[in-house]
Amino acid sequence: MPKKMIHEFYEMKRKGEKIAYLTSYDYPTAQFAEAAGMDMILVGDSLGMCVYGYPGTIPVKMDQMIYHAEAVRRGAPNTFVVGDMPFLSYQSSVEKAVENAGRFLKEAGCDAIKLEGGRRVVPQIRAIVDSGIVVMGHIGLTPQSSGQLGGHKAQGRTLSSAQALIEDAKAIHEAGIHMLLLEAIPPEVAGYITKMLPIPVLSIGAGAECDGQLLIVSDLIGQFQAFTPKFVKKYANVAEVITGAMKAYVADVKAGKFPEPAHTYSMLKEERPKWDEWVKKA
Ligand code: KIV
Q1: Which band of pLDDT confidence, cut at 50, 70 and 90, is reported for residue 56?
Q2: What are the CA-CA distances from residue 202 to residues 45, 46, 207 (Å)?
Q3: What's 6-236's CATH class?
Q4: Catalytic entry in 8, 183, 209, 271
Q5: Where exactly are the structural domains of the chain?
């Protein structure tokens, strides 16, 4: 399948065809995602928790994002890949924002970048878009500013909070975003924004009315153990499968059942008599 590009996502929105979007952080997972027919992959800064074991996304550095994005690009050469701008890679200046956004394209071969925030990141969005980069906005529960939000809490649950999200969506759309991700907001608010904007609007915990859905791969496959957000649907339990396999291996090693002859290498046929002779004398 050829890689879908931005105009195809607009076409999917127009036709009402849903977009399947998933995070990936490494080469093999990206291969699986591409083989599964994923429309879009996010190299999310959620890798801070899912891969590095940090308590949140704040410690994630730009270089880490680039390493993982490069690996994902190699694993999914024919899938649209979005690089997620980590904390302080864009907030402090417009110049820094453009430079770091550009790194995702130049060094990792990403197709687009994503950044969190509404009205307060309008200058950064304008500048990144003006430099020719495809940008996905991200509003609602924005983990990088969860301290200000009072934790990882759903947003837009009051009229004033919903109206603020709508104003944020309008402002960043006017600034030039090409797609928007809504995280953890009520479906009626997400549905309103999806209808209001002509661009693809993706949901993670924002209900079925959006143009597509995003999940964190570590949640989807049942690998991430620390907590499970309400919006997650687990499609597998790889933690159980992996731990089960490892336990069986430990048991086999302890019992001398592994390795079996089939897992070993034989000496070259003509060398064997020489070996036997040598051992006899040794
Ligand atoms: O980093 C990530 O995976 C994200 C999602 C939580 C939306 O930004």
Answers
A1: very high
A2: 17, 17, 10
A3: alpha beta
A4: 183
A5: 6-236, 241-281
Helix (H), strand (E) at residue 27: helix 27-35
8 A C-beta contact, residue 224 and residue 218: yes
Q: Where are the beta strands (DSSP E) in 133-275?
A: 135-140, 179-183, 201-204, 212-215
Closest to 7 measured CA to CA, from 83, 117, 111: 111
Question: Does 23 contact ligand 1 (Cβ within 6 A)?
Answer: yes
Distance 95 CA to ligand 1 centre (A): 23
The per-residue pLDDT for range 245-266, each reduced to its tens digit, is: 999 999 999 999 999 999 999 9
Choose which residue among 60, 72, 183 to substitute to test ligand 1 binding: the one with the highest number of ligand atoms within 8 A of its C-beta: 183
Q: Is the CB of 194 under 6 A from ligand 1?
A: no
Q: Does ligand 1 have an atom closer than 6 angstroms to the CB of 219? A: no
pTM tops 0.70, yes or no? yes
Task: Say whether 183 is catalytic.
Answer: yes
Work out the average pLDDT over 187-216: 98
Beta bridge partners of 41: 22, 81
CA gap 100, 35 in Å, rounded? 30
Number of other residues whose CB lies within 10 A of the CB of residue 101: 28
Q: What is the pLDDT of residues 9-18, one digit of tens each?
A: 999 999 999 9
Asked if the model's pLDDT at residue 2 lies above 90, the reply is no
